[in-house]
User: Which sequence fits this backbone?
């Protein structure tokens, strides 16, 4: 009977060890997945802040008009567009030609 008890105890310890090993492996995998999800959450939070800033910007009609003017050269009625072109003398002084 002594050998049977010892065999059962060894088998039980082996099964418990195998179960614990499986739990440790699962814990490691879940910890890695949790770290990946935390990183994704942080990226989404940053993106959310950016979107909220965009929404706040575009809620102001003046900002929408300003952006439209910048991108398309649209002129509001009653507004005049002035284009300043540097003179030849100032452009040659600002950017001297290199001698080769």
Assistant:
């Amino acid at each position: 009977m002594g050998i049977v008890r010892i065999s059962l105890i060894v088998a039980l310890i082996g099964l418990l060890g195998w179960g614990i090993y499986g739990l440790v492996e699962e814990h490691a995998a879940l910890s890695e997945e949790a770290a990946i999800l935390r990183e994704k959450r942080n990226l989404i939070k940053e993106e959310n802040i950016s979107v909220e800033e965009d929404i706040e910007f575009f809620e102001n009609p003046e900002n929408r008009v300003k952006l439209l003017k910048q991108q398309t050269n649209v002129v509001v009625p009653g507004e005049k567009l002035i284009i300043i072109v540097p003179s030849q003398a100032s452009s040659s002084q600002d950017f001297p030609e290199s001698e080769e």
